[in-house]
Each structure stands twice: as structure tokens, then as C-alpha cells.
Design goal:
heterodimer; A: about 240 residues; mainly beta; Protocatechuate 3,4-Dioxygenase, subunit A; B: about 190 residues; 5-stranded mixed β-sheet; 4-stranded antiparallel β-sheet; about 0% helix
């Protein structure tokens, strides 16, 4: 009885070639000592993989969707509205799913003990937010546009402006951590993290688009960023 | 219509800002039924250096072998307040500690029961995608027939099975080796 071919649950689709990074990607130097060297073992999805943590609306608090205010004052930097939808590969909305986001301040500095003081902290910017998608998979939060920052990966290395997104989606195997970039950023062609995605079109979906619809006059520019999680297998592969 | 799935990107060195606000080092509180265990361990890189900036996230069934998830339709009890989710970060010594209950057996392929196990996602700077592995339990008769352990070469299975610590029944040790001689078994899910 081949356990490899007879799952009794409806699994999730494996990623299309080129849409996901490999573990070892030497241009990003830290991968070299942290990537596994042995082949991964193909795991047919069981009940353990198609289920996953369900976070309720009590995971978020008022104000979690606004990073522009902290400690009684307003953060420095261009205010932006980031919004979009969380969908699966078939275009179905992923409703009521938690998004955790974090980022550097407008000067490119993280509020973290390990970040170097290349640029000052902003006392009115913490750099984290949480939102849940609505019934149509939509989310929205307000922040300031993060600045680019230097890092030690290679000489004169700079990370392009980006916002980190973490979400679980409906299952253990839909868990995704990604980064959203900004259109026209001149640092993108030189960034090994962005360029780790082999397929050019798959890379481009990490870049948000400018959005007049959500731009608020005299207040904030809008950026649109959709996130696509893995789709479902059509049927259990075999019974 | 088929949309392009969003690519994974590293959590980077500063994930604590966004993700440790929701640390869950205690998966099961005192009211939750089951035998209580604490799993401690450390994470190592290819040079056997400790990894002080890793995130471990865990997913498990309750003691009856039921997941708190709508797709688990088994006729088994759920307990209010038990989500089955854990999240811990390693400290400056590369160490983590997770307190939970031992999960029950859940169904596997072909109706075969899976041995008690905890699903684990490991994220860190230098990992462009998280690693997926499992924690199994020592002295567990179901391990022999577990359909997932069967997929692993016998001499590597030990990397997935936590060890008892001295004579304490509730203390387990389980380490992660990202690469190298004792490399942990990671799964392609």
C-alpha cells in the first residue's frame, strides 16, 4: 500500500516551478550556512497539513491597522494606505485571515536591538500592525512609507523599501511570509532577497501598485498589494 | 483563472517587531486535558553554531486527536480555549521552550492512524522559505507504523523524535539542525 499516493484529504497544490525561492541562494549570503543540504522529503498532505491555526477577531485591537501614531504623536514620513485582497490561486477570497505586518521607519531604521544606528529611531513609530481580511478577503492599513536601508550582505548593499507580511491562511501548508515592495524602486534589481524568486513574473507580483482609489486627498498615497495563497487540489488524488 | 502564488521571502532579522507580540509559549493552559509536556531545544546552523534569531511555530491536535479546525470533522471532543498553535523565538543561546500537551493520534492516509506528532515551521534570517518538520514522541508504540516516519530513511528518523530528559516524564528535548551531519529531516509540503 503506497502511502505516497493515497491521501484521504483534499490537499493543496504544489507551487508552480519558479514561483518560490530555493533554500540555498548564495547571492543572499546567510542562506549558505542555514539552508538544508539534504533533499526534502515529499510529504503527501494529511489532516495535519490541511488544518492550521484559526485566529479570531479577538487577535486584533483598535488601532492595530494604523502605524502612523505611537506614544501620543505622529510618525515622520509619507503616510500611505496599503490595501488589497488575500486570494487563493483560483481567485477565491481568503476571508477572516490574520495578517501581521512589520517594517522599518521612514529613515529605514527598525525598532530592534540588532539594527544599526545608521538612521534615527522615530519615537512615534513602532513599525508593527495587524489586520484581518473581511468576508471578501480584503484588508487595509495605514502606515508611513518605509525607507531603504544598508545591510552587510555585500559591499554597498541596500534593501529596497519593503513591508513584511505574515499570514497563515486556512491551513498549515498555506503559511506564508513575504515582503511587499514599491513600484519604481531603483534598488530592486540589486536586491538578492527580491531576486531569489526565479520567475520574473512571480517576482513582479511582490511589487505593489500605486492606487488612486485609496489615495486620500491631502493625507496619504494608496498602494495596492494582493496576496495569493496556494490553491486546493481539485479532488483527493486517489482513493 | 489561475493566479500566480505570492513568493515566500525571509522573515529577516527583525521579525520580533511584528511576530513576537503574539508569542504562544504555552500552547495548553492548566485547564486543557492531556499529559503536560515541556519541549526544550536549540537550533543550530551548518557549522553547529547556535541560531539566536529563529522563530518556531507549532500546530497540533488535542489529546483526543482532534484539530481545532473546521476541516477536522472527526466525532471527537474539542476543548474551548485550545487552539493548538504555538509560537516561540530562540534566545541568545539559540534555545526555545514550549509547554503543551501530548497530542492524540490523528488519521493518516488509508485510515491508518498517525503517531502523535506536532507540526513545526521554522523561520529565520537566511531562510527564504520556512522549513517544515515534525516532532514525534519517545517510547511511542505508534511510531513504528506511522505513515510519515515510514517515508524517512531509518537512520534519519531519530531527528524527528524528541528525547526524554533524565527521569522527568514531562520534559523533552528536541533540537533542530538546519544542515550538516545531524541535519534534521525537513519535509516538502
Amino acid at each position: 500500500m503506497g502511502t505516497k499516493t493515497i491521501p484521504d484529504v483534499r490537499g493543496y497544490r504544489r507551487p508552480e516551478p519558479g514561483t518560490q525561492p530555493t533554500y540555498l541562494y548564495p547571492p543572499y549570503a546567510s542562506t549558505v550556512r542555514r539552508a538544508p543540504t539534504k533533499p526534502l522529503i515529499f510529504l503527501p498532505h494529511t489532516l495535519s497539513e490541511v488544518t492550521g491555526p484559526v485566529f479570531g477577531h479577538d487577535s486584533i485591537s483598535p488601532g492595530d491597522d494604523d502605524m502612523t501614531r505611537a506614544n501620543g504623536g505622529e510618525a515622520i514620513g509619507p503616510r500611505i494606505i496599503v490595501s488589497g485582497r488575500v486570494l487563493d490561486e483560483d481567485g477565491r477570497p481568503v476571508a477572516n485571515t490574520l495578517l501581521e505586518v512589520w517594517q522599518a521607519n521612514a529613515g529605514g531604521r527598525y525598532r530592534h536591538r540588532n539594527d544599526q544606528p545608521h538612521s534615527p529611531l522615530d519615537p512615534n513609530f513602532n513599525g508593527y500592525g495587524r489586520v484581518m481580511t473581511d468576508s471578501e478577503g480584503r484588508y487595509r492599513f495605514k502606515t508611513v512609507k518605509p525607507g531603504p536601508y544598508p545591510w552587510g550582505n555585500h559591499p554597498n548593499a541596500w534593501r529596497p523599501s519593503h513591508i513584511h507580511f505574515s499570514l497563515w491562511g486556512p491551513a498549515f501548508v498555506t503559511r506564508l511570509v513575504t515582503q511587499m515592495y514599491f513600484p519604481g524602486d531603483p534598488l530592486l534589481p540589486f536586491d538578492p532577497v527580491y531576486n531569489c524568486i526565479p520567475d520574473e513574473n512571480a517576482r513582479k507580483v511582490l511589487i505593489s501598485s500605486f492606487d488612486w482609489e485609496t489615495t486620500i486627498p491631502n493625507h496619504a498615497n494608496g498602494y495596492h498589494f494582493d496576496i495569493v495563497l496556494r490553491g486546493r487540489d481539485a479532488t483527493p488524488m486517489e482513493k | 483563472m489561475k493566479l500566480t502564488p505570492t513568493g515566500s521571502q525571509t522573515v529577516g532579522p527583525y521579525f520580533h517587531i511584528g511576530l513576537t507580540r503574539m508569542l504562544v509559549p504555552v500552547v495548553a493552559g492548566p485547564d486543557v486535558e492531556g499529559s503536560r509536556i515541556t519541549i526544550k531545544g536549540r537550533i543550530f546552523d551548518a557549522d553547529q553554531k547556535i541560531v539566536p534569531d529563529a522563530l518556531l511555530e507549532t500546530w497540533q491536535a488535542n489529546a483526543a486527536g482532534k484539530y481545532a479546525h473546521p476541516e477536522d470533522t472527526q466525532d471527537k471532543p474539542l476543548q474551548e480555549g485550545f487552539l493548538g498553535f504555538g509560537r516561540v523565538a530562540t534566545d541568545d543561546a539559540g534555545a526555545f521552550s514550549l509547554t503543551t500537551i501530548k497530542p492524540g493520534c490523528v488519521p493518516g492516509p488509508g485510515g491508518v492512524l498517525q503517531a502523535p506528532h506536532i507540526e513545526v515551521a521554522v523561520s529565520m534570517r537566511g531562510l527564504l522559505r520556512h522549513l517544515v518538520t515534525r516532532i514525534y514522541f519517545p517510547d511511542e508504540p505508534f511510531n513504528e507504523e506511522d505513515p510519515v516516519l515510514q517515508l524517512v530513511e531509518p537512520d534519519r528518523r531519530a531527528t524527528l523524535i524528541a528525547k526524554s530528559v533524565s527521569d522527568q516524564v514531562d520534559a523533552l528535548e528536541w533540537n533542530v539542525h538546519c544542515a550538516g551531519e545531524n541535519e534534521t529531516v525537513f519535509f516538502d509540503v
